[in-house]
Design a protein that fits this description.
Shape: globular
Structural class: alpha/beta
Helix content: 40-55%
Bound molecules: S-adenosylmethionine
Organism: Periophthalmus magnuspinnatus
Distance between the termini: 50 Å
GO molecular function, one term: acetylserotonin O-methyltransferase activity
CATH class of the largest domain: Alpha Beta
Pathway: Aromatic compound metabolism; melatonin biosynthesis; melatonin from serotonin: step 1/2
Keywords: Melatonin biosynthesis, Methyltransferase, S-adenosyl-L-methionine, Transferase
Radius of gyration: 22 Å
EC number: 2.1.1.4
């Protein structure tokens, strides 16, 4: 029961700028924090104490009159908007979009469909259009946290060209080029996403321009030629007929020896976990969550063999397939 209170306390502190404030000015007391975030002292005090109990703030009692607060190591790494692996944008997305959807969970379970229209008065696709930049920021923050684990899960040194299908801001593409000096990556995504890409490009990381972008629809348009196709957080979102279309298109352009790098949360084969995959399924997208064996069966129907599986211990796992 406390899980939802803990989540909301974290979202609220992020939204009100508590972690950013304590990153900039560590060692403030509740009154000082309250003044900076423009909130009541009582409310701020309760929030700060709850965050300490969650391991997100560290109290220091060096001052004899009041407790002084600073970010814990965990918060410093993940919760400031400028933290190295900032999840700030993902937290805002979860609070603004996922939370309202989950407040309609009973209907979602009854109907087996997502509840975007009930929660926002808009279809999922229209909501994505309206919140495009926020959605991209959310995807980018997760991809930054997990991208290195995905890009380095396997030896990809034989692949010179890759195409990241639905590669969004290019965060995983940059990790792939960092880990593979021989590789160039084309990020293929919808025009509305590609036109916003400049906001996310780390210029210092791509001096030799090995990451490029192409706008298109992976269900309708020709796919760019590549030795390796990346599908990260794509297949779980789509109904089976769409997954079949996409995999057929990839199989068509892949020559023998070409690879597919798939990255998703892999369910245990007996579907008992991990809970982050099973809870994500409750969003009721048209797709579904699968185990590694289920992904193998899916790709094998399209002429791929399973080369490696890696449970990364990060947010996303990875599999490498080869076209035979
Ligand atoms: C869940 S996000 C995953 C982003 C990225 N692969 C990652 O793991 O960080 C799904 C991506 O697929 C893109 N997408 C959805 N439909 C698409 C289509 N028909 N053609 C190309 N890209 C599409 C979305 O714009 C979005 O960037």
């Amino acid at each position: 029961m406390d899980g939802f209170r803990a989540s909301k306390a974290l979202f609220t502190a992020s939204k009100m700028g508590v972690f950013d404030l304590l990153q900039k000015s560590p060692g403030l007391d509740a009154e000082q924090v309250a003044a900076e975030i423009k909130a009541s002292v009582k409310g701020t005090q309760c929030l700060l104490e709850a965050l300490v109990s969650l391991g997100l703030l560290t109290p220091s009692d060096q001052c004899e009159f009041a407790v002084l607060y600073k970010n814990s190591t965990l918060a410093a790494q993940f919760l400031g908007s400028d933290s190295p692996f900032s999840l700030h944008s993902y937290i805002l997305h979860t609070d603004n979009v996922v939370w309202p959807l989950f407040s309609h969970l009973e209907n979602a379970v009854r109907d087996g469909t997502n509840q975007h229209e009930q929660a926002f008065g808009k279809k999922a696709q229209d909501l994505f259009q309206a919140l495009k930049l926020r959605f991209m920021n959310a995807m980018h923050s997760i991809a930054k946290v997990t991208g290195k684990a995905v890009a380095t899960a396997f030896d990809l040194s034989t692949y010179k060209t890759a195409c990241d299908l639905g590669g969004c801001t290019g965060a995983i593409a940059h990790e792939l080029t960092k880990a593979n000096p021989q590789m160039s990556v084309t990020v293929f995504d919808l025009p509305a996403v590609i036109e916003m890409r400049d906001r996310f490009q780390p210029q210092h990381l791509d001096k030799d321009h090995r990451v490029s972008f192409m706008a298109g629809d992976f269900f309708k348009d020709d796919l760019p030629k590549a030795d390796l196709y990346v599908l990260a957080r794509i297949l779980h979102d789509w109904a089976d007929d769409k997954v079949e279309i996409l995999l057929s298109k990839i199989a068509e352009v892949c020559k023998p020896g070409c690879g597919v790098l798939l990255s998703e949360i892999f369910l245990n084969e007996d579907r008992t976990g991990p809970s982050r995959g099973l809870l994500q399924a409750l969003s009721m997208s048209p797709g579904r969550q699968r185990s590694a064996q289920e992904y193998s069966a899916l790709l094998e129907r399209h002429g791929f063999t399973t080369k490696h599986i890696k449970y990364t211990d990060n947010l996303l796992d990875a599999m490498l397939f080869l076209k035979v």
